[in-house]
Records
---
Amino acid sequence: MATRASHRTGNRTEAQRGTAGLIVFAGIMMIMAGVFQAIQGLVALVNGDFYAVGQEYTFELDVTSWGWIHLILGAMVAAAGYFLFQAAIWARTVAVIVACLSIIANFMWLPYYALWGAIVITLDVLVIWAVTAHGRDVLTTMGGKR
């Protein structure tokens, strides 16, 4: 019986390590996606002709406006990714909110750069899953603060 109890404890520790790995994955992905999104915004601000607009679209904005949106949102996503490493509940909550905003912005950005928008949407969905999958385990594994 004693070996079963230690085995269970060992499994729980391994599961908690996996959870911490998910949060690290989410943080790294958010930092990378945020930096790339900010660069995308800078490109739109510096060279408005870089992005070609296809067909008419419901969410049509000036490329300069999209540049500012992506620059600000990219900085927010990268900052939220950084604060995920602090293992605070508020950081996970902010990360989910900012990832949702990024999904909406990139959905609206699809006519300008469809492939990149779809990639960022997919990464944001993975980040939301990673951050919300095992919230309680993060507090015990990484010593998070409320």
---
Amino acid sequence: MRVNGTLIATLNPGEFHELVTADSLHIVASAPVLVGQFLKGFGATGSGDPAFSYVVGMEQTLSEYAFTAPTNLSPYPDNYLNIAIPTTALNSLQLNGATVDVSGFTPLGASGYSVGNVAISTGPGRIKAAKPFVATISGYSQYDSYLTIIGAKYSAGASPDDIVARVSASTDKPSYPADAAIELGASVLNLGTTPAALSLVLRINDATGVEVARFAAHDLGAVAAGATVPHTQPWNTARNPAGTYTLVATLLNAQGDVVDVGSTLFTIIADAAQGAGKAALTVAVDRAEYAPNDRVRISNLARNLTVNAPVDNARVRITVRNPQNAVVYTHVHVLGQLQANGLRSTDTQQTLKTAMEGTYTVEAVLIGSGNNLKSATALPIGQAKAYDVDVDLATATTTFAVRANAPGGPGTPGGPGGPGTPGVANPIPVNQPWFLWLIGVLLAAAAAQPLRAGTRPSSQARQRGGLQ
């Protein structure tokens, strides 16, 4: 075994030799050896604590390393990278993208290497050069220290062949409706100097990172040096929910190790039947005319017309205006989530109190949040569609009249004046138009979304005001 060109020991298998020195060493052996470096502590040097690390051989070095200097509650005040680099690559050394001042580096005998220390800050960093080099990291405080390598290749024969290749992902359009065909794509470029056996795996994740589709690995064969190989994969959006999705392309070597990963965004838009909007809403009252102290039953039917976009926090806001256009009554039906193609009916009662005569207007607005609910759907390539919040999805209006001589009144249970006094059972009003309309609504709802046994739809409402 030679150190800095001088033969210092001949070792039999299992034997070791120890050197006590503060100098830089170039160690050459005629057979594989394991080298370790030991730091003495405060008692010998006046600072630090004992630390030990293995030292990698030159054949195991890399040309780029990522590292982290400890950032705990008591970080080391002094942190260094200890570098041995081929002298011909010395001026290419970069730390976090900036050229390193190598004026303090010195040649190591006739080894062809130069050695030096580079002071670093706590936290992560990256150092690289044009050629592979030896690098360790160390830090000191008065009574503490650390030392370790920051990276290495496997020993010769154990490492897989270095493969330098890149993969990019693409789609043929930035956005798609429901039940649309998509052409997923990937392009692989071999940046190495030799052919590389590669395979490609495509998968699709939703906006939360959940995988919604994965395709079988595609064998690209031996990709020639400098060659680009395209790959396409068909897919259909089907009824996947509207939102932003990520196509991920993973490039693998022959051993199944990841060589590179590429990705791109695309959007599935909220899609409805041709010519239809995103939602529909109707509103109706149980009669055309009411007495000044009557009750008005206001019913509405809300429907999500999309096939793939649930409406979150759906609610229907009811507003009644008197003949002078003043707001005299408001009510909000909270529907919760209205599923794609879902239907929900609700109603409320408005109590009239000596109401002025004339025509009243009932306004209903369906409001909700969700992916791609607004009308604009054209997106720049790579841009995700925002989650739309509190969008006015549909509106509807109706009118009723208040007349002093209108039939009925609030105190006649089951009479033609309305639903009757609260708490008093009313006969089924089969002769009332509003009842026939409501029955039609409920039958349509049952046909569109059959309920499971033992469940029933629910709604919550908050209410303020009264008609004066």
---
Amino acid sequence: MLLRVVGLLACSTQMVHVERTSSDVEVISSSALDVRPFNSLIDDAARNGAGWTRSPLLVCLHCLDAELGARKVTISEVANRTEQRDTVSIELLRNSLADDSVRGEWYQAILYRQDDGTWRFVSLRRAIRCWRRRGDSYSRDLCP
């Protein structure tokens, strides 16, 4: 899974890919998000002793407000190894949003564990699913 993720991240944003994710969701295209603001937030929280900074899953939930405004949230976490993991890929789906155009959001985050045991984003990608667009795929295109 991690190699497939890295391969997708290495592709140009101009190319169109159809990717089957771990939850079998079709992502046609996605946008790379700037991870610096999220990592700054994590840095500040870690300095203040916030416990959520030590869990890649909690980091994603905290930074992406994943539980808000969605009827269904699905999360998949894949680590590079079981013990002493230092890289994690998290796929987060928010579906049935209370929005008249956006039906759902897909996020794919790659996080790396720091020496102090806290986690930082290496990359973060986002795609959306529209109520009025044909098919069930996610893409970076805006909804009509």
